[in-house]
Specification:
The protein is built from 10 helices and 3 strands. A 3-stranded antiparallel β-sheet has the order 1-2-3. It starts with a strand and ends in a 37-residue tail after the last helix.
């Protein structure tokens, strides 16, 4: 199920979303040019290894500083392959601009950083003795999805599924997709707790923690109403008003930008 576009109109260019995408891509190209003998070293020292912080003796024995918390950040800009980074960046591009439009670039960056931290912390808490490095921006992006679900529950999202070689297109409201996706992550994470081999290398609980943090924290980051003018009815996309409601109800007169 591949999201293609949503119905929330944007008023501003999403500079911070674009910046985050560019940074992730640059780091990926840096990883790609590393000699193979360095890949594992970089993954363990710049990726998030929970045991590094929960079992200090193990960390020291493997040349890791248990008091270095930088990997919690650097891990979020690393990816394990082309499909990994393309999938993450595409989802960020689908759901991020609408939130940045309501928050502004600085607030969006702060929100992204906090939900990313919540995602990584959840991964450590639920996998405390894991010695495998977790990398990827998916935890922070899950937080963006959680915030989007709260802010635009009635927005419509167009998806594509490939059946054999034929594309099938359909749309879901954001609230339905968000809850379905969250339930999938939660159930997969619960199964992985019983059998680590079922995790498939996916940090399910980082997704869960990020999504919940995004839902809980999104509204304090939204700009005050007086900083934004309301949308006109014809500013929606795909035939929907900006909040995802397919109506033509009248809106108040726009306020001027400060």
């Amino acid at each position: 199920m591949f999201p293609l576009i949503d119905s929330v109109a944007r008023r501003h260019t999403p500079f911070m979303v674009l910046t985050l995408i560019v940074l992730n891509v640059l780091v990926f190209f840096w990883e790609a040019q590393l000699p193979k003998v360095w890949i594992e070293y970089v993954s363990y020292h710049l990726g998030l290894v929970p045991a590094r912080y929960t079992v200090p003796a193990w960390a020291i024995a493997h040349g890791m500083d248990p008091h270095n918390y930088l990997p919690i950040i650097t891990a979020q800009f690393m990816h394990g392959g082309l499909a990994h980074i393309v999938g993450n960046m595409w989802v960020l591009w689908i759901f991020g601009p609408a939130l940045e439009d309501r928050m502004g670039p600085a607030r969006f960056l702060a929100f992204y950083g906090i939900v990313g931290l919540a995602a990584m912390t959840t991964h450590i808490a639920l996998n405390p003795y894991s010695t495998l490095p977790a990398i990827g921006a998916s935890g922070a992006i899950a937080g963006v999805m959680g915030g989007y679900t709260v802010m635009f529950p009635r927005a419509r999202i167009l998806f594509m599924i490939i059946i054999v070689i034929f594309p099938l297109f359909f749309e879901w409201p954001a609230i339905l997709f968000g809850l379905f996706w969250f339930l999938l992550q939660f159930l997969s994470g619960t199964q992985a707790l019983d059998n680590v081999n079922l995790s498939g290398g996916v940090a399910w609980w980082a997704h869960v923690g990020g999504f919940i943090a995004g839902m809980l924290l999104v509204k304090p980051f939204i700009l005050p109403e007086e900083r934004n003018r309301p949308y006109f009815p014809d500013e929606g996309s795909l035939g929907y008003a900006p909040d995802g409601d397919k109506t033509n109800r009248k809106r108040t007169e726009p306020r001027m930008w400060p």
